């Protein structure tokens, strides 16, 4: 399969690569060092706002909004693919260009389903990079890989909704810039399973919304963005904060997850590619037992396997993006399941090989590798764990090949 990009897209690729080299990579250590030296880790390093201003001035802003010419670049998923991979080479990269999760999914959701009031109040500030947002779906008491099992209740009381529930792993909620959550809960437990859920906008300063704690990923609090455990205790918001129709929450969540899974996989491919390049540089410079590490056969095998693994995942992800553009999420869902199974595991393995080649440097804060490894391992759970995608994919294959 051959993908050929227009001159417009190729120009964006070239400009984005230069921007990453000139500005983003040099700022990574400053960004993390600022947080580590701060008395309060939940602060925004000034360098991030400087980078965002530069990116916006350079026209490298909101590139992800496929199909929405009014809000973003109007690129298709396939055209956005190489850009997402380049941004994913740095863990601070996506935010610099206002292309970071969960804001990307929330912006797409509001662009597609939001009212004009919701777009003015919440979407426009997100597009401007003035605020952040979060998506509250996962719960500690139920298997959230099955969204129909959600227990959080959203009950109507006159012109208001009253929300009671317990959520966790709400990514971005501890961020001091997080202005609102999109909360998914049950409005009608007696409806068919996929019509019980509704999504509503909840401002972070709403009474009864309590952040219990930030959660750690392999011991890292992921500040200043973080992942929150949240209690909703009689949280009251207007019914006008509902997104879409009552009972449409599951459908809306699925439409949000399709592009989001492609974006995650592309960013992970970028992570893996950078890890491979760092590995090649490291082993060429390092000498042990009288010769360069790059002359060791096992090192060369790891590099060769990594090259193959990355290219296979890249091509499969491009195919999924292309099919989603030409058909629909429903028609592309098998390919999306495939990339969600393949890409995070691939990235985890490639980064692990790079860590091994770096030795002690590979597991400390002086390298981007530990955070990249944690990111890859986490995405094997986020947006549907491996087993859910494999079960769906296997079930479809059995039905198709035995029809």
Automatic annotation (TrEMBL):
Residues 134-235 form the Acyl-CoA oxidase/dehydrogenase middle domain. Keywords: FAD, Flavoprotein, Oxidoreductase. Its cofactor is FAD. Residues 10-130 form the Acyl-CoA dehydrogenase/oxidase N-terminal domain. Residues 247-396 form the Acyl-CoA dehydrogenase/oxidase C-terminal domain. InterPro entries: Acyl-CoA_dehydrogenase, Acyl-CoA_Oxase/DH_mid-dom, Acyl-CoA_Oxase/DH_mid-dom_sf, AcylCo_DH-like_C, AcylCo_DH/oxidase_C, AcylCoA_DH/ox_N, AcylCoA_DH/ox_N_sf, AcylCoA_DH/oxidase_NM_dom_sf. One of its GO terms (molecular function) is flavin adenine dinucleotide binding. GO terms for biological process: fatty acid beta-oxidation using acyl-CoA dehydrogenase. It comes from the Bacteria. Belongs to the acyl-CoA dehydrogenase family. PANTHER family: ACYL-COA DEHYDROGENASE FAMILY MEMBER 11, MEDIUM-CHAIN SPECIFIC ACYL-COA DEHYDROGENASE, MITOCHONDRIAL-RELATED. This is Acyl-CoA dehydrogenase family protein. It comes from Pseudomonas juntendi.
